[in-house]
Amino acid sequence: MTSSLSDLEIKGVQTPRLRVECKQAGNDAAEAAALASGYGLTPDPWQLYVLEQWLAYGENGKWAHGRCGLSVPRQNGKNALIEIRELYGMIGRGEHILHTAHEVKTAPKAFKRLQHFFGEKKDDPSAKFPELNALVKEIRSTNGQEAIILKNGGSVEFVARSKGSARGFTIDIVIMDEAQQMDDDALEALGPTTRAAPLKNRQFIWTGTPPKPDENGEVFTRIRMQALEGKATRACWHEWSMNEDADLDSPIEWALSNPALGYRLDIDVVVEDRETYSDEGFARECGGCWKFA
What we know:
This protein is α/β, with parallel strands linked by helices and 293 residues long.
C-alpha cells in the first residue's frame, strides 16, 4: 500500500454488484425522497436505487417485493436509508412499522435518530420541525418501549430481537437491522406480527453485512441464497460487495463494495483499514465479501 492512494479521486459505484428484482408497475421512491429531503435527509443515488425497489408496487397495488434484503458494508449510509423508508411509511402511508435490532443498545440509538425529526414529546415547543411535531400523537422514550405514534395511525416501534420480544405486535412493515445476527427463533417470533397487517400489504426488510464465523447469520444467509438462486417469491436482494477472488488492494474493488466512497467515506480510512485488518476481516467488513461468512 502507498500513501499516494489517498490522492486518488475514487467514487463509490452507485448500483449493486448483485441484484435480484421482480417486475413492478411503479414505485413511490420519488415521493419518499422528496419528503425526507425536505428535512435534510437527501438520499444518495444508491439509496434512491434501493428505495425504488423497496417501494415498488405491482399491478395489484401491493408491494412488488414482500421481502427485501440489503447487504452493504458499514458507514455507507444504511441507517439513513432505513430512516427514509420509515419516515415515508409512517407519514405518507400510515404504516405500522417495527424496527428490530440485535443488540439492546442499538434499538434506542435508532429511535433517537428518528425522534430527531419529531421532537421530544407531543406538543414540543422546541421541536426542530414543528409541522412534524404537530403530527405526533405520542412519543414513548421508556427504555425497551421506544415508539413514535402519529395521529394518522402511522407508527414506528423499536425493539431488540429475542424469542418473545415482538409477540403481541400487529405490524405492516418489519425492519430487521443487523440481520447478520438473526436466528430462526427471532424470525419466528416476528413473522406472526404481520399476518393481520392493518394495511394488508406487509413487507420484511433485512439489512446488514456478511456474518462473521461466530455470528448466527442463518436467516440472512438463507434469504440471500434463495434470492440469488431464483428460489424466492416476491423478493429483492441488493448487495455491494467484492468478488470472492478480488484483489483486496484494488481501489476499484473498494468502489464496487462501498457506494459512499469518495462521498461520506474517505479513501484514507479504507487505506488504513486495509493496512490494519487481516485479509479475511478486510474482505468481509470493508468489502462486503461473503466468502468467509
